[in-house]
Design a protein that fits this description.
- This protein has 183 residues and is of the alpha+beta class.
- The protein is 21% helix and 36% strand.
- The protein contains 3 helices and 13 strands; from the N terminus they run αββββββαββββββαβ.
- The strands form 4 sheets. A 4-stranded antiparallel β-sheet has the order 11-12-7-13, covered by helices on one side. The protein has a 3-stranded antiparallel β-sheet with strand order 1-6-5. A 3-stranded antiparallel β-sheet has the order 2-3-4, with helices on one face.
- A hairpin with a 6-residue loop joins strand 9 (102-106) and strand 10 (113-116).
- It is elongated.
């Protein structure tokens, strides 16, 4: 049985949940998110709690129960608090700036990299070496942050590139030139 799926979700004040035949809509102060309903999983709203119930005990249905519960909990947190990923840019001359809806990154290539910002997230550049990705959809925020990081992954020798603030880069020693010998 799914342990995560059994847990009830507390619905905070200001959040409205509408369960239809095909979708589940969660609306809060920051926006609205929708989730398509999965077959075999039922969602019941009892006052200020939300329960996800599996129709049978098959393996696939129990897995969908836990997944649906986790997605709904993330949606509720997204419409109340929102999500944020912070990226740091390290390297001489590496910097970022926002030009309208386009993030322009100077990453040591022969020309700046232009990254179009999707409408589902908000990108902020508080200083040239920090990029903030914010939004109400956890998956969209993570996807955009990963796409920005992928433009220049941090390398282990000098640490240059784009990394998450809480990410630890394992550094490697460079080539050690031995004196004398060779041949």
């Amino acid at each position: 049985m799914s342990r995560i799926g059994k847990k009830a979700i507390a619905v905070p004040k200001g959040v409205t949940i509408q369960v239809d035949a095909g979708t589940i809509a969660v609306k809060g102060q920051k926006g609205e998110l929708k989730l398509p309903r999965k077959p075999g999983v039922d969602v019941k709203l009892d006052g200020a709690t939300l329960n996800v119930v599996a129709a049978d005990q098959e393996r696939q249905t129990r897995a969908l129960q836990g997944t649906t519960r986790a997605l709904l909990a993330n949606m509720i947190e997204g419409v109340t608090k929102g999500y944020e990923k912070k990226l740091e840019i390290a390297g001489v001359g590496y910097e970022a700036e926002l030009q309208g809806k386009t993030l322009v990154l100077k990453l040591g290539f022969n020309r700046p990299v232009r990254f179009p910002v999707p409408t589902s997230v908000v990108v902020e550049v508080p200083n040239p070496t920090t990029v903030l990705v914010k939004g109400i959809d956890n998956q969209a925020v993570g996807t955009v942050a990963a796409a920005i990081r992928k433009l220049r992954k941090p390398e282990p020798y000098k640490g240059k590139g784009i990394k998450y603030t809480d990410e630890v880069i394992k550094r490697k020693a460079g080539k050690a030139f031995a004196s004398g010998g060779g041949g």
